[in-house]
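Ticket #4471: structure output looks truncated?

Reporter: J.K.
Steps to reproduce: submitted the chain below (383 residues) through the standard prediction queue, then opened the result file.
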Amino acid sequence: MSKKDSKPSPQTEATLSRRKFLGAAAATATGAATLGFPSIAKAQAPISLRFQSTWPAKDIFHEYAVDFANKVNAMSGKELRIEVLPAGAVVKAFDLLDAVNKGTLDGGHGVVAYWYGKNSAVALWGSGPAFGMDPNMVLAWHYYGGGKELLDEIYKGMNMDVVSMLYGPMPTQPFGWFKKPITSVEQMKGVKFRTVGLAVDMYKEMGAAVNPLPGGEIVPAMDRGLLDAAEFNNASSDNLLGFPDVAKVCMLQSFHQCSEQFEILFNKKKYNALNAEHKAIIKHALEASSADMSWKAIDRYSKDYIDMSTKKGVKFYKTPDAILRKQLQAWDKIMAAKSAENPSFKRVLDSMRAFAGRAARWQNDTNVDYKMAYNHFFAKKKG
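Returned output as attached by the reporter:
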């Protein structure tokens, strides 16, 4: 056969060319896999995480929990899916930490002060005057002043296999809801009162008989006479929970919980199983949620504050300075007693005090008196 005769036909050439291309493509894919490049594969099902909040479904706090979940879900391109159930859907509100630790739930949304019964030190992230720091400053201490490391250490000592993330600075909480205005500390003696965390100790020091009920149980208890008075958190939550139906007096301003924030909990094994990208999404969704929650709170709380005062007959009064000073004096006793019995409590206090010494001084010296400007534009002019 001549060389001319041995030349492949066009059909054969096409077949050989196709085989060569497929072989090269296979080699490329193998090389890409070896080098760690992504290959075309069937999309995996999203990672689903079941959360529960410590709030009723109608409460704005539960809405904040859902807002966080929605941000994670959207930012992950549906690779992560967090479902948030309301308090009681799986466990009671105060059982959330244990449920997340055991893996009954993958995560949850609440406040650190709810775990006060396990270690009194955790309540320092929500209760008390925080050495004059506002809630955003407490978060600054937590993330940049050593607070996070202390909280992680406390959870480890409690044998809690969880990952805790704090966010969402809460505005100062009211002193409480009452049947009539409170003008002196003496009026608190014997009052059946609801609060939580170290605020329990503060109100007890003022003579109240305290019952730390979850949020959804407060108004029914007041309606049945099991409580004389109570505090929860803010104008929107208080309005939705029905406080104006059982009391018409709300005393504003207090040091019992003036610097609190929210907590996102993850079961540690579940969290550690996530890849680095998903963990980054959670971190940035948390930071975005912290800002968004602050802005939403200003809008919603102010609307509900006006609604209750103009449409529901609620009278708001400023808590007298004498009571506020009594709270600070009570706090001195609480700090001394708890520090003596709990080394973790003292470590947290010392860390917080050191940060507040410079940060609160800076803020107090720097910030202008916004009330002066408000009064200039809105206070009624005389004459």
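Triage note (M.O.): checked the attachment and the full token line is present. The longest strand covers residues 162-169.
Status: closed, working as intended.
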